[in-house]
Predict the structure.
Amino acid sequence: MKKKITFIVIVLIFAFLGYNYLYQEHRDIYNEYAQFSVLPNDILKEFKTNSSIAEGKYLNKTIEITGTVTEITETDITINNAVFCNLSTNLETKKIKINTKIIIKGRCIGYDDLLEIVKLDQCNLKK
Amino acid sequence: MKYSAIIIAFITLNTFAQTKYLTKTGVVNFEASVPSFEEVKANNKSVTAIINTENGEFASLALIKGFRFKNALMEEHFNENYAESDKYPKAIFKGQINDFTLKKITNKDTSFNIDGNLTFHGKTIEIKANKVSINIKNEILTISGNFLVKASDFDIDIPKIVKSKISENIKVIFNFSMLKK
């Protein structure tokens, strides 16, 4: 009897661990600390000079950008015409105006060499 | 003197500038689901696309890390084992829309054929005579369509144990709403 119970408990623990592994949560960029805090033109310059070095440094990392808003749409903000930030929620853009200074945190997804712009997603405003 | 030279350079550049429509927020989805298994589907909402409306030249760039899956583990596996997005961070399409003139385009979809090259995972494949629909509404030029590719086209190996759960034919759906620049 005792053996049976231990067996069931072990199976349940494995099922639980397995389920948690298969259906784990997405990264929560909003609550992650930024690994880098950079100016938009500096990060753009790094990607322009040597994109593979910059990719190794920034790809998939949470970074914080301080700059001036140059373009706004419903879902995203462009800073200093150098960094494009896709927002995690749509609502925030309503509070922001062009030419104001902001601090934004998001995940770097790479460098777009067609438009020469660095792209971030899952962005949230810090200020 | 220096400044006037720059100003003149800018003016001449502008007169020769071509008419372009572009977007930074194009949408590309792909799906490789097999019925009755968990869906294998991702969505990227920050794809760049540019069209030169003088000659129908078209280019698009998607950052691979921008593809989001519902399942976080699937997203991780896609990035690490299949697309290898640290090594190959982007997918690029460059091509030509045949017989393109802005005059043909109305607020209803018009069909065009596009030819071009798609580079992904370090491999380039040719896409020939693929149908695209184009319309223009309130100054927004929209290009949409889809195509099928195979994982093997891009040297992506799908391990045996998951082979039955991932379709060999991957459907890619795109929609670019572009503004004049």
Notes: The mean pLDDT of chain A is 90. Chain A has one domain: 29-125.
